[in-house]
Amino acid sequence: MQNTLESRSENTSSVSQPGLSLPMQNQIHELAKTLPPPRKQNTACDACRTRKVKCNKLPGQEKHCLSKNYPCTHFVQQATSEKKRGSANVRRPRNLSNTGSRYNPVGSELTSDRPIRASSSTSPQSSKLTLPSDSSVSPPPSSYPSSPYGSSQFLHQQSVHQPISVQATTPQLLAQLFAPPDNHHSNGLLRVPQSPYSDWGDVAVKLQEEAFRAEFALDLVEVFFQIVHLRLPLLNPSLFRLRLNLEGRPQQSSLKPLHPALVATVLAWGAKFSEHPLLVADRRRPSGQSHLAKALVDRARDLAESMKVHRIPNADNVVIALLIEPLQNQNPDDPNGFHGFWLSSAIRNLLDLGINHKAVMANIQDADARGTMIFAWWMACLADAYHAVYYRRKPMLDDDDYDIDFYTADPVMQEAVETQISTPSPREQLEFLGYYRAAHALARIARQIARQLWRPATDSDGMNADVVVGFIAALSDWRDKYLLKVGVPSNFEADWDFVSVVSACASDATYQVMWVLLFNALDDFGIREINEVVRSGSPPDAVPNGQYELAKRKVADEALHSALRIAGLAGVLTTNGYLRLDSAVMHVSCIQAGTLLARLGRPEVSNCIAALEQYGAAYEEIGEHAVEIKRIYASASSGDFDFNHMASVAPKSNGTVVDSDHAMNIDPTSDNDSSRHSAPHDSFSLSIYGR
């Protein structure tokens, strides 16, 4: 028997590949291993099928649909299978055509593995959020248990993915934005009825009611204008409220409806800071984070993508992109984030619109529209420069890419007239105080530093000594010219409103952090002239490093003073709860200053840690930096200092700290209705570590 089996095996191997030698067979076998697997039919879930992506799981990653917070349902596949089983007993007529077509000449039925396409009525701008509208793909009603909460889970999930067009009414938009979370599942095998909103807290079930959705949306809009608009005045509050149209009633033809992605972005911003009972209940979890607020951020971003906000240049899309950028995750290493994407999209749209040309701006007749576009350019230009130097990236804009004095925007009189407020708008306040001009001057320095830090030659060779000296001179000149005007004064005894406080602290900290960034760059790259001598193998005394060490010590001293100054400002803002209301403006300064103080073993780092923990209420990822800074400080406190090229000048002792207590009475209610969401504003002492 064994001989028989062996002879059969030999015969099989000899005829399996006729005419091919054994080495050739092995090569073909190895080649076959590299070929892609056969195509699987009807395996993609509904969301992945619509988006035309693979519904599979890569090692160490989630499935594509789950990573995008889409439901992994297979209702299309189920319906197709039911249809095939129902017609299995019907003998299909032969295809008598000699053309080889896959279609039946009588009836022209498509085969069951045809791709699912969106309905012809679907807007091309909303295809990303669209599921097939064919009723044949709906699951049988008996497949889902009845629920005391109304519609089935599938109907809720399906409503999230209905197309949204520019003509969609606000009630239609709210129904989708506030639809239940996509990751809702029933409880176990018994399929116990459960509220589809249970992941968002006990109060979220009220979002099924249209009246409650409108009331909740109005609260989020008001929070946006009370908190976020003060820092990012890109919208006209009264005109936005007028165009919001929560009732969905027919409006005047002259009143343009709001862009759905703009409404979604404003609501997502409001959810970060609102103290509505629904969000308070949603935050009752160990992390203290609101799942609804996170979902609104993702849905606003997905809606903006589906409506091609990043690709179509117009004024609305510019504003939407600029508001989305600081709204989302602020960690540049987040694999699921889009750090800098929306900022670059806004700049491209602005350039396509020609906003960088003075002649184009002069042709915009409407003063409100012109002021908005000028401010949008200002915000994008400055954010591009600061973003580049913070993360060592190449800035998109150069100094000669524009010829407009964008920091002298026209006053926005429409807002004051409609609301009958005699006080200037936040945009005008910043202009009067000189913040635009000072910020532009600092942004030009930041742009120059960023262009040096991102260069591969700097990474490999180091920074040129003359360039470093030039940066020292430029930052010192800016301090002498602007800091006393736009920074926090040392002996200010007057009432400040919320805008003045946060603007002064942000301007002060933005300047101070430049020294910290320059210190970090020198520590990472070193000075090129010193590096060249060291790499050549010359003895240490051959390095003419006297002037170089002087420049390094100057940067180290300024960086220490700046980090202490930022820690003092952060302590004041944290004490009054202002960083809980900050729209991602001060976080980089707190992180950079805190990290440097922790590396130096300075106890003042506690102010930065507390500031970042308060930031974590709205930006979870920023709070995570506090944990890392604590670890660095613990290591430095034990004597483990981690410095490279700046080790010779880094101060490793607590040194002398100059305390200066200055009373500042701050009134955070700069707008007439912002007190409800403001932090306590009693008189307090400002302890800052300054010169």
From TrEMBL:
Question: Where is composition skewed (Polar residues) in this entry?
Answer: 1-28
Domain annotation Zn(2)-C6 fungal-type: ranges: 39-83
Report keywords, A-Z.
Answer: Metal-binding, Nucleus
- Superkingdom of the source? Eukaryota
List every stretch annotated Disordered.
1-43, 79-155, 654-691
Compositional bias segments (type: Low complexity): 119-137
A Gene Ontology biological process annotation?
A: nitrogen catabolite activation of transcription from RNA polymerase II promoter
> What's one GO MF term for it?
DNA binding
Q: Which residues form a coiled coil?
A: none
Q: Name one GO cellular component term.
A: nucleus
Family annotation (SMART domains): GAL4 (SM00066)
What's the protein called, per UniProt?
Answer: Zn(2)-C6 fungal-type domain-containing protein
